[in-house]
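Entry 0007
Protein: Quinoprotein dehydrogenase-associated SoxYZ-like carrier
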Amino acid sequence: MMEVLALLVAIAPLAVAEEADPLASGLWDRARAELFGNAPVVFDERVVLLAPAVAEDNLNVPVVADARALGEVEVMVLFADANPILRIATLELSRAEPFIGLSLKMEQGGPVRAAARTPDGVWHVGGVNVAAAGGGCTAPASVHAAADWAQHLGELWGRAWLEPDGAQRVRLRAYHPMDTGLAFGHPAFFIDQLDVTDDAGALLARLRPGEPVSQHPVITLRLRPEAGTRSVRVRGRDSDSNLLEGSLPLAWRTGAPDGDRRTGSKE
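Output (C-alpha cells):
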C-alpha cells in the first residue's frame, strides 16, 4: 500500500506541470472551463497562432490559426482570454483544412489562442500574447457613421487562389457591423453562421463567428473540394435572421480570377 501511495505522490507533480499554461494567464482556468468543460486539453506547439506582438488597432487585430500539423481535425475554436466575450469564432470542418485567418476586437491585452479537437476528443491548444491598449469590444462599429450602411448589409465579396499543394485558398468579406452589444446604444448584431458548400451542395466548412470578430469580417479558409468542383456557395445568417448568400468561382491552374468578385447580397 505504501508503494502505491509513493507512486501517486511521484506522479501528481508531473500531471500539474503538464497542465501549466505556457502563457501564464490568470484567466486560463475560466477559458478552459467555459469552452472545454471536462474534455481533455493539451498545450501543443503544432497548433500555431500568428498575431502581432502589439495591436496597432484594437478593433482590427489580424490572426491566423493553423493546426494542419495535427493531421485530422474536426473543429477549431479561436478565443481571447481577456475579452468579455471569450469565443471569437468556431470552425467546423468537413472538406476544409484546419486553417483560418480573420481579424478580431480586443478589449485588453492578453493571450489569443486557437484550439483544435482531434477525433479522439482531445483539444490541442496554442496561442500567443498580444499587447493591446484596450477598448476594442466596447467601442461602437465605425460603419454606423455611414448613412447608407444598412443598404449594403450582407453584401459578400470573395476570391480564390489555387495553392501549390492543390488546396483552394478562399478569402471572403462580408459587409456587416458585427456589434458586440457592449457599446452603448448598439445591441448585439453579428453574423453567427456562414456555410461554405461545393456546387453540388456538399458542406465544406461551417464557420460560426462571434461578436468579437471585426466589422466587415474578412475570412480566409483553405478548402479541399472534390475534384472537378468549379465553384463554392456561401450561405449565412446574422443574429437578426438576415440572410447572406452568394457564389464564388474557384481558381484553376490556368490562373486565378483577376480582382475581387462580388458574390452576392442580402436576401
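Curator remark: Residues 1-17, 255-262 have pLDDT under 50 and may be disordered. The chain has one domain: 40-264.
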